Amino acid sequence: MSDPVAPKRDRPWVFRTYSGHSSARASNALYRNNLGKGQTGLSVAFDLPTQTGFDSDHPLARGEVGKVGVPVSHLDDMALLFEDLPLDRMNTSMTINATAAWMLALYVAAAERSGVDPKLLQGTTQNDIVKEYLSRGTYIFPPGPSMRLISDMVAYSVSAIPKWNPINVCSYHLQEAGATPAQEVAYAMANAIAVLDAVRAREDVPDSSIPQVVGRISFFLNAGIRFVEEICKGRAMTELWDEITRDRYGVEDPKLRRFRYGVQVNSLGLTEAQPENNVIRIVLEALGVTFSKNARCRALQLPAWNEALGLPRPWDQQWSLRIQQILAYETDLLEYDDLFDGSRAVEAQTAELKRAAREELDRVIEMGGAIAAVENAYMKQQLVASHTRRTRAIESGDLTVVGVNAYTEAEESPLTTGGAQSILVVDESAERAQVESLEAFRRRRNDAEVAAALRGLSDALANGDNVVPPSIRAAHAGVTTGEWADALRVVFGEYRAPTGVGVRLAGDLSPETERVRERVRGLSDELGRPIKILVGKPGLDGHSNGAEQIAVKARDVGMEVVYEGIRLTPEEIVQSARDEGVHVIGLSILSGSHGVLVVDVMERLREAGAGDVPVVVGGIIPEVDAQKLRAAGVQRVYTPKDFDLTRIMGEIVDVVAESCAAA
Amino acid sequence: MLDALERNAPFPGAPRVGITGAPGAGKSTLLDALVRGLRATGETVAIAAIDPSSLTTGGALLGDRIRVRSSGRDPGVFIRSMAARDRLGGISDVAWAGVTILAAAFDRVFVETVGVGQSESDIAPLVDTLVYVANPGSGDELQYMKAGLLELPDVFAVSKADLGASADRTASELESARGLVDRAATAWSPPVLRVSARDGTGMAELLAALDAHRRHTLEAGLLEERRRRGARAHVVESLRRRYGSHGLERVGSAPGIDERMSAEPQRTSFAWVEVLSREIEDALRKPA
Ligand code: B12
Ligand SMILES: Nc1nc2c(ncn2[C@@H]2O[C@H](COP(=O)(O)OP(=O)(O)OP(=O)(O)O)[C@@H](O)[C@H]2O)c(=O)[nH]1
Ligand SMILES: [Mg+2]
């Protein structure tokens, strides 16, 4: 039987759980709880106001404070978040981008205040703005200034906090927005090149330190359900990065060319229907990024079985952590050398992915690089197109999704009989408490010091000095997240990224779609002009996939579509609806703030005399909330289980027809 | 209603400014900056964003106001996007109707439309001043000159001047090309301005150029003539879209229509479209 002496095992990857909610105190307790269960690294989820540079009491923050992450408005919040955690020994990953320089400054200041040498800090600020424009949506500033912030952080940390990963180039979010593996690879590489080129162009970074800079660039990947292909993707990226860093940046030390990456496995494919199946998907995806030793992730975070229902509870996250622990400690995965070296099938697929990615990467570089391809909408349009192909394939059945478009006969899941109890519901009082503590903080601080620190920050911005040191001073002085971001807004201005929905695509040829087209034509003739729909995304929510796919489909069936992208206020949406004379409004909200925002839009519509324009809503809307929305006058509510876009369009035609008949 | 609006419109009324240029040239961003400047002076502004693109399914995506941020919550700014495709009459009909309505209610009207060759010549006669937004370094300008469209714009605005050298190059290309066009008839030499919505370069100059062109056309009596031509273009192009050149011939084509419209100047273009449509339909029913 088996050898009583334990075989030599590799060290496992870092186990993380992406989490945070309500307040710094509640999140701190959550982190300690998670670490107690065997989690080995932290991954901080910030709330949307913090990510988009607003204090918790800003009007745009209403309904969002502490919802999908932890609010951090100032140094005391940051200190509390890591209270009693050993900052010098923690490996902390922060999903923070537009305000990354500020969160890093707060983290460094918190370390300094507790007597920890910042040089010892280990972890990652995500700090990848390109994928924010393309997918994630929490950008603030235009591309030029944003790249400056990123390169400031790289330049600063390489010398001052040498173990910190100042940027985590993300392809994760691209797959979540519909990217194919080749697009994921190509756009991530184009992005990394844009960052490195920007750093290389700096005068304060000598050419001799470029290899060190390259060595600090880490990546954040996705892993989908086609897990063999994902193994090949990891290998392809490892090889490509090695080639690019050698050829383009002349890095000679192979260790500094090593492709280092963390992973969060795919969530886009996790379903609302038969949600227990998601656990199986997550296991397979986790296997995909750990299987091949030569392309094994350094850190892994897994979503939970109830991903498509709402936020995970501690038990749900624990279940996912156990997947990692079983994989690392019970199986023999870590006892072997690479299992795929020499596999012809894997090598062929790896080569093919590299070829396709190179081709797309060359196209982007030809265009002027990642930033140019953000601004001219090329990459975003390609992602929208890929996602449209995916949604069409699910609709047609060409892509099987068990429980969704196949094998839909099922027993009731005992996991969901609890209804609203099967997800985490953030206590509504958290926002008020956070606002009160922010007000108390403002009273405590020295206003003159704050003003001086903000002046120092503005001067540095204007002079082109590195933004990190004055931000650390501002953190100590008691500047808040909103104040820091406002200082930058004044100098940099704000930005809206292209929506990508203008992409030219061949129409869907299914007979069902053609039937809806005919109905749209018929009703448009009756109305005297084409059916016009406004697709709106109110609030800070950046989940644009659903709105984009609805917009693309509505155009495909012959409607006139007004879609203006993410992060609009209810006022802006109502003004558009009225000016544009739309027949129907479709709101898409996935961040959980539908309760406040939908009602706000409807009230303003009534005030504007447009109360008769019908409203439909889609997103992550628990059934209890859907009932409330319908009672408030919303005509239809859609959730992820409604994958059939053609059917949705048919129903929107019904809604318009009913409202015209009523008028 | 349109008929009454056109008949009762005071002359010269609200300035009607067309903004055209290649896709992505920076038209909307520029408009946003312009609007912000105008709002600061208290002027109310309307924008008609016209999408001339055609899709086989007839659907359209109108997201143009996305970058026009100053509009949020400001009732002094009105933005309406319109799809020209598949509407009877096409861009001329949509734009003329839009401009007529908006000019009755706002201090200034802008029409944004993507320049795809045909649309510039469609839009040019319908506005008082046409601004061409040139995308620096994109090569669109050469296309543009080749297409013989250089005589249409009244103002050239090379966008994204903050990008530096490429904007300078495009500006000098346009300057030399501009010299080749004979402008004797209007005695107006279109300025070539370098502008940036990002850093504000040239924005004041652009507004000044719009005003200068307006003064010039008013003083030289060109504006009235231009509006008359606009009305005629509206009629001719709308009919052409509906009935084709073949149908248009039945009412004497452009020269014939010109003549009849000059003979009865009190009748509005909207009324003419109706009258002539009926005539064409009658004529088409009879075998030729
Ligand atoms: C993809 C995804 C992302 C992508 C988004 C990419 C993009 N550009 O859209 C990325 C990775 C960027 C992302 C980020 C975040 N995400 Co996310 N994400 C998802 C995920 C996995 C899928 C959503 C999706 O795109 N589905 C595909 C589209 C086509 O489906 P859909 O939007 O549901 O739309 C369908 C219907 O709902 C309906 N519909 C939707 N809108 C409309 C509108 C109209 C008019 C109509 C008629 C119909 C309709 O029709 C569509 C057709 O099927 C969901 C979980 C899940 N599986 O649903 C979490 C989820 C929405 N995310 C969540 C969170 C918390 C976040 C973050 C806020 C985390 C953080 N703290 O930073 C960030 C920040 C994002 C931001 N800026 O707001 C939570 C929200 C929790 C809540 N509501 O309580 C979810 C539910 C995951 C979870 N369980 O925690 N996410
Ligand atoms: N650097 C720089 N970029 C600009 C400026 N103005 C616009 N842009 C960028 O150019 C791109 C296109 O801008 P838009 O204003 O949408 O251009 P448009 O001509 O309205 O585009 P379409 O309506 O799609 O034809 C966007 O990425 C803008 O951010 C500018 O002044 N400077
Ligand atoms: Mg535009």
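^ cobalamin complex. The longest helix of chain B spans residues 222-249. The radius of gyration of chain B is 19 Å.
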